[in-house]
Specification:
With 159 residues, the protein is an alpha/beta fold. 30% of the residues lie in helices and 18% in strands. The protein has 4 helices and 8 strands, in the order H-E-H-E-E-E-E-E-H-E-H-E. The chain has a 4-stranded parallel sheet. Strands 4-6 form a two-stranded parallel sheet. The chain starts with a helix and ends with a strand.
């Protein structure tokens, strides 16, 4: 029997327990995607095409909120969010760059199906934030293994 899978299942159950017992923020937000507003910044991933899968993930997350979402937050600028505290499923593809190195303290993160694309650029402040909100649900083994290599509880799993 694969011990990684057993460990992942245990962590996933722990994560679900923490999320369900934690006092949530009063408002819910979904992630939107501006793709850096098409700014040509050499440090940012500038896709030539929109990835409709990004939007599908946000729509999928919406079903888990008890009420309609209150606001929308741009994935690429979450560190700049200064509004009221919100619950947000962080179930997306993340590219760490100079304008988005961490997450706002006004975001109550629900880390499920999380993925990093550029591991070499993940700063210590982001790792500390993830450590404070562990365990982290990952959508691939590479992200899970990267986080574990930095002593962050992470699991690969689909609920």
């Amino acid at each position: 029997m694969n011990t990684d899978i057993i460990n992942d299942e245990d962590l996933m159950l722990k994560h679900l327990d923490v999320v369900s017992s934690d006092v949530p923020a009063k408002k819910n937000a979904l992630i939107t995607y501006s793709y850096n507003n098409n700014e040509k910044d050499k440090e940012y991933y500038n896709p030539k095409d929109m990835n409709i899968g990004d939007y599908i993930q946000s729509l999928a997350a919406a079903q888990f909120f008890p009420e309609p979402c209150d606001t929308f937050l741009d994935r690429d600028f979450l560190s700049l969010y200064e509004g009221e505290k919100v619950n947000v499923f962080l179930n997306a593809w993340w590219y760490i760059w100079k304008k988005n190195k961490s997450f706002s303290e006004n975001i109550r993160p629900l880390f499920v199906a999380f993925h990093f694309n550029n591991y070499e650029n993940v700063p210590s402040e982001t790792l500390e934030y993830l450590r404070a909100h562990q365990p982290i649900g990952c959508r691939d083994y590479q992200t899970r293994d990267f986080l574990r290599s930095h002593n962050i509880e992470a699991y690969f799993g689909v609920v």
